[in-house]
Each structure stands twice: as structure tokens, then as C-alpha cells.
Design goal:
Length: 407
């Protein structure tokens, strides 16, 4: 099989031979897991693979999971395509064996891309072999594909995890074809929502599991000292998918009638200049702050009273769950089942039809003008940890891994 210009390398057909992966049965639930736990092999070594450990939801999730597994006595290695000059953004347990491959440089020509991706596969395979894992877990679509190709012929089982809804994110044709060809080789494909699972054909759905992200937060931590003015918080990478332009438009509709409230958008990215220009054009320069990235997102969230999620595309938005856990009622566009799995309309927040800016403004205005409803939702929000707390989600991951290794 030969990949074209946007493709990567001449790939022998045997590397993407489609087998029939086992079908994992989950219908018997925890009772079955408890019954067979004593017969499972011990899982000591876990190797995690991701492109980088910079800012981002998937990066934060992998860091949380790695730290949790170390706390549970596992030996954890983390392999990144970036080099040692790209330090992890989120705190990483010093016991974790971090292996930066230095293989993330962009390519200028198709020939360079072919050569670079060949080197990436070789480096990945070597790192996986050296860590001698019981299980390999990869995050994010293109890294998942590379990991599955790099492990052809190895006996180690591989789990790949998607962190966006693939139905809402269009991949280049070559990568999409490689995903369809390689994902059947994974022992399990993990997705964040049922809509994401339904995107895949049946031969991939047959070994796809829906698992939420773990939310690592202390709900008993005190609220930050209130700011002089009340505020709505948003947080994320400054890219078009986050919809911060829509949020600015929504806030502009209520800014005049709610003069005591401000908007704070945490994060950074390619669209910063565009967002600043839009803010100033709307006359919101003194009402909307863009303070940049923060290594303490929970502290930042606790400075506000309401959380806004204006994304055009999300899988399982960690920041939404974290905001609820911090006691912030939320307003969000109902763009995926991942969001509706987290937010319970009327209990801890409000859902708005995708792209409905007037509806989003009205929902914000409703929470601003009704302190009693805000207080009730604030009390309900931390219950999100009963479903998505670290211990709960990591127990489910451990059960999945044990099933995979035992098969």
C-alpha cells in the first residue's frame, strides 16, 4: 500500500493486515470483574504514548492517569514525540519514566515527511520495546495510528484512545484511511461518548469502550477570595473549535444590562489577536479579560461565579466537569453526548442549542439574575465527581486493562 503526497511512507500491506479482534463483554458489570479478579495476570508496567505534554485536555488527562497509576504501584513510562526541550506543562510524578523522542519536527516536503515518519515508527518501536510493558496505551488519532504501526509483530497489547468526537473532526483523507486500516488491530478503542463510538464501522465498534475522563479535583477546597466584580469564566485553547468568538458575541448582548459582571477567558493560542480585536470592536475592552494560560485551572475557576462552554466541537470537555466540581453552574452548547453526559440541565447548568448565540446570552442572563438558582446549581455541581472522579474512572480503566491482558 503506497501513501500519496500527504501520506507518509510506503507501507507494506502486511503492516495493516486486518484481523478479527476479540469482542469484550461488559454486560455482566462489576460482579463478573470481582469474580475473576484473582485469576488475572498482574499488570506492573504501563507505557503511555502521546505527541506532547504541553497544554491541552488530552495532555492533562494522560498526566492525571499516569500519576494515578504510579500511586497505585505501577511502573509507568511516558513516550512523547516531542523532545526534551518541551517540558511537561502539568505536574508529573517524578517516578514516571519520561522518554522524549524528539521526533515532532514539521516536514517541508512529502519526501521529508516520508523519512520523518519512518524515523518516528522506528523510534516508537524501540522505546516501546525498551520499556517492556504489559500494556501500551496511546492518546490521540494520528499518534494512535503510528503506535499501532510501530507495534506490528510485537506481542504487547495496545489500547488507543480518541479524545474528540471523530464525527465532528474531519481528518485528512490519508490519515482517515490509515485509521480505518489500523484501528481493528487495537485490542480496545476507547472513546469518550456513545456518539463517538457510533461513528466507527461495526468491525471497530465491536471492540470499542466508552470511558470518561477522570476529573482530578478536591471539591472541599475553599473558594478563592471573591474578585471585586463578579465574573463568567471560560477556559481553553484559542482555536476556532472553542467558539470564544461566539461567547464574546453572547456576552456583548447582556453586558449593558449586567454592568456588574465581567467575562474572563483563560488560555492562549493562534486566535488571540483575533479575539482581542473582536472584543475591542464590541466595546468590551474593560469588561473581558484574556489573562493567558494557567497552571492552576481550579484556582482560576474558583474566582468566578458561572462557567461558559461555547465550543463548536468537543468530546468529553474536562474543563466543564472541573467547573461543576468547583461549584460553578455552567452554560454550554449541546454539541455532543459527552457534554450532556456531564451537565444535567436544570440541576447544575443549562444547555443551549449549538450555535444559538441569543439563546446562550439568555441562559447567562438567567443565571446572573437569579442568585438562588445559581446557589442551588452550585451545590449540585460537585456531584459530578461521583461519576467522573479519579478513583472511579481509574477503577474502570484497570478493569479494562485486566480484561485485555487476560484475553
Amino acid at each position: 500500500m503506497t501513501i500519496g503526497l500527504s501520506g507518509l511512507w510506503d507501507l507494506p500491506a502486511r503492516l495493516i493486515r486486518i484481523g478479527t479482534p476479540p469482542v469484550w463483554l461488559h454486560t455482566e458489570g462489576q460482579r463478573r470483574r470481582n469474580a475473576v479478579i484473582m485469576n488475572r495476570p498482574r499488570i506492573d508496567r504501563i507505557t503511555l504514548i502521546i505527541s506532547s505534554l504541553t497544554t491541552g485536555g488530552a495532555e492533562r488527562v494522560m498526566t492525571t492517569m499516569a500519576n494515578a497509576w504510579v500511586a497505585r504501584g505501577r511502573t509507568v513510562s511516558m513516550v512523547t514525540l516531542t523532545g526534551p526541550d518541551m517540558a511537561p506543562f502539568y505536574p508529573l510524578d517524578p517516578a514516571i519514566n519520561l522518554i522524549p523522542l524528539g521526533q515532532a519536527a514539521p516536514s517541508r516536503t512529502p519526501i521529508d515527511a516520508a523519512r520523518a515518519n519512518t524515523h518516528r515508527l522506528i523510534a516508537l518501536r524501540d522505546a516501546i520495546t525498551r520499556t517492556d510493558p504489559d500494556i501500551v496505551i496511546s492518546f490521540l488519532d494520528t499518534t494512535n495510528i503510528r503506535t499501532l504501526l510501530a507495534t506490528v509483530g510485537l506481542s504487547v497489547p495496545v489500547i488507543v484512545a480518541e479524545h474528540t468526537d471523530p464525527g465532528l473532526k474531519q481528518m485528512p483523507r490519508v490519515w482517515s484511511g490509515l485509521r480505518r486500516a489500523t484501528y481493528p488491530r487495537a485490542r480496545q478503542v476507547v472513546v469518550l461518548s456513545h456518539s463517538a463510538r457510533e461513528y466507527f464501522p461495526s468491525r471497530i465498534q465491536s471492540h470499542t469502550t466508552v470511558l470518561p475522563n477522570p476529573v482530578a479535583i478536591d471539591p472541599t477546597a475553599p473558594r478563592t477570595t471573591p474578585a471585586a466584580r463578579q465574573s463568567i469564566a471560560a477556559m481553553g485553547r484559542f482555536g476556532p473549535e472553542k467558539g470564544f468568538d461566539l461567547l464574546l458575541d453572547a456576552f456583548a448582548r447582556i453586558a449593558e444590562t449586567q454592568p456588574a459582571w465581567d467575562l474572563v477567558i483563560w488560555g492562549d493560542g493562534a486566535l488571540r489577536a483575533d479575539l482581542e480585536t473582536r472584543r475591542d470592536h464590541l466595546g468590551l475592552h474593560n469588561r473581558v479579560a484574556l489573562p493567558g494560560r494557567t497552571t492552576e485551572p481550579h484556582h482560576a475557576l474558583r474566582q468566578s461565579e458561572i462557567f461558559a462552554l461555547s465550543s463548536r466541537r468537543e468530546g468529553f470537555p474536562m474543563v466543564l466537569a472541573e467547573a461543576l466540581a468547583c461549584g460553578l453552574p455552567a452554560v454550554a452548547f449541546n454539541i455532543s453526548s459527552g457534554i450532556s453526559d456531564i451537565l444535567r440541565p436544570g440541576l447544575d447548568g443549562l444547555l443551549v442549542e449549538p450555535g444559538d448565540v441569543p439563546g446562550f446570552a439568555a441562559a447567562l442572563d438567567r443565571l446572573i439574575t437569579d442568585p438562588a438558582e445559581r446557589a442551588r446549581m452550585s451545590t449540585n455541581g460537585p456531584h459530578v465527581l461521583e461519576r467522573f472522579g479519579v478513583e472511579t474512572v481509574m477503577d474502570r480503566w484497570d478493569a479494562l486493562i485486566a480484561d485485555v491482558v487476560a484475553a
